[in-house]
Amino acid sequence: DWVMQDHVAEAVARIRAQVGDQQVLLGLSGGVDSSVAAALIHKAIGEQLTCVFVDHGLLRLHEGDMVMAMFAEKLQVKVVRVNAGPLFLRELAGISEPEAKRKTIGRLFIDVFKAEAEKLKAQSAREIAFLAQGTIYPDVIESGASKNAKKAVTIKSHHNVGGLPEQLGLELLEPLRDLFKDEVRELGIALGLPPEMVYRHPFPGPGLGVRILGEIKPEYPDLLRRADAIFIEELRNGIDAASGKSWYELTSQAFAVFLPVKSVGVMGDGRTYDYVVALRAVQTSDFMTADWAELPYSLLKRVSSRIINEVRGINRVTYDVSSKPPATIEWE
Ligand code: XMP
């Protein structure tokens, strides 16, 4: 629409004015905010933008390839993909406590990003002057609120890349700072990003790292990725007759969780002794409180039988019927 096209033109002009002929670095995660920021900045300054995509090996099925297909191939954005999966797995070995895992993932992420940024700074013919981030208005409010909070109990420590610009000697570029999530999505659509990407459920920075309970053994992420992809595919395909919407649209967030416990099953005439996944689907308006979603039994049945039949190594599927509070949305 017109209003959005005006907004795009205005944002593009503002970015051009701020950046001039200097170079910009952006941490691309594949999430909505950084994706929209990348598309917008690319529209404004094209080749002057370089994105760094740190693949920590804890992403969803084919996610890394999809990010590259979208940005590097389709939009012709310069993207450096860093395949840090093996490093993350190595460093996470032996760590099972959720906060310790979160902190390890956060620290490694920053280390890897910084190393790549330093390399690009050294190589770049023109000086890299800016670090772009997909900060949106609620993030601005939230970080202000947490600074003012006297002594809030930390339930989960989130990824925080707040110190990066200073450490890298870069100025911040935050073109989405004044926008709410809905506006960011509309902007993404106006920029030509596909709706499946723009209307995706949120995904936590530590990724599957907080959806594999306890220690992350090398064989776990792949099992979880495959189970999760089946769940999401069936949610997208399952249409609620009353609303005409898919169950993916009717839920705010949905995913599979890997439980590193084994239970006994039977397959053909053999015994199995394999892992369990839990399915989590919630409805919420603000992610501060959430209800578990009353998914149709027929849908749960299809998901369960597909996972057990298609993912060798998982022989049991459960559904999480906990609301937030007292449970949280993610399990760690
Ligand atoms: P919880 O589990 O606290 O999650 O009920 C609330 C929302 O926050 C997301 N989440 C995160 N997002 N980095 C993020 O960017 C994180 O470390 C993180 N931990 C949780 C979670 O997926 C849900 O949408």
TrEMBL record:
An example Gene Ontology molecular-function term: ATP binding
Which keywords does UniProt give here? ATP-binding, Glutamine amidotransferase, GMP biosynthesis, Ligase, Nucleotide-binding, Purine biosynthesis
Domain GMPS ATP-PPase per the UniProt entry, residue ranges? 2-200
Q: Which GO terms describe its cellular component?
A: cytosol
EC no. given is 6.3.5.2
Pathway, per UniProt?
Answer: Purine metabolism; GMP biosynthesis; GMP from XMP (L-Gln route): step 1/1
Note whether Metal-binding occurs among the keywords.
Answer: no
- Source organism's superkingdom? Bacteria
Keyword Cytoplasm tagged: no
Give the EC class as a word.
ligase
Reaction equation(s) it catalyzes: XMP + L-glutamine + ATP + H2O = GMP + L-glutamate + AMP + diphosphate + 2 H(+)
Q: Write out the residues that bind ATP.
A: S29, G30, G31, V32, D33, S34, S35
Provide the assembly information: Homodimer.
> What is the role of the protein in this entry?
Catalyzes the synthesis of GMP from XMP.
Protein name (record): GMP synthase [glutamine-hydrolyzing]
Native source organism of the sequence: Comamonas flocculans
Q: What's the gene?
A: guaA
